[in-house]
Amino acid sequence: MDGPLLTYPSLGTIHPYSSESIGAGLIATGGTVFNSVASTVLGVDVLIYIPFSIGDRILVKQLFCYNGATVNGNVDVGIYSAIGKLIISAGSTAQTGASVLQLFDIADTPLDPGDYYLCIGTNSATATFFAGTTVALTGKALGLLQDTSIIPLPTESVFTTYALTMVPIVGLTIRTVV
Questions:
Q1: Among 83, 106, 119, 130, which is most buried by a count of CB atoms within 10 Å?
Q2: pTM of the model
Q3: DSSP symbol at 11
Q4: Number of domains, the chain
Q5: How far is CA 97 from CA 70, 93, 121, 157, in A?
Q6: Domain range spanning residue 165?
């Protein structure tokens, strides 16, 4: 990897509603950016992949998801390459903290300019996460994908067509959040 690592792309975080991801497209197509109530967004054996692109090298320090009111089971979050290879994940971790960001410390992970996917999955049918809404066709058009796999996240994904109607809040940060 050549070149310096950037420490502040955008505001230091990348998530579905940031400029590096699908935020503008989601808003332009009438989706909500954020629901004030948590909804059950995943379910057992469903992984959600949210595309993002970066134009500069970054160093990822933490991953996060925004838990809803019901926390249950385990959650895993990670980053995949554009071709579905796992780059880093938090590993299967107990979902903790109702209606708060759950942070996952990971090994500092450099990402070169390119296309990637944020991924989230849970082993609980009742765990909730904050999310925005969309229609499945819009999600598909914006590049969202899903997989019918279990956590911990697999080393290689089998992307399938997006058929869900929400976009969970999951992301990465290039600085440590306390």
A1: 119
A2: 0.89
A3: T
A4: 1
A5: 9, 12, 17, 28
A6: 13-173
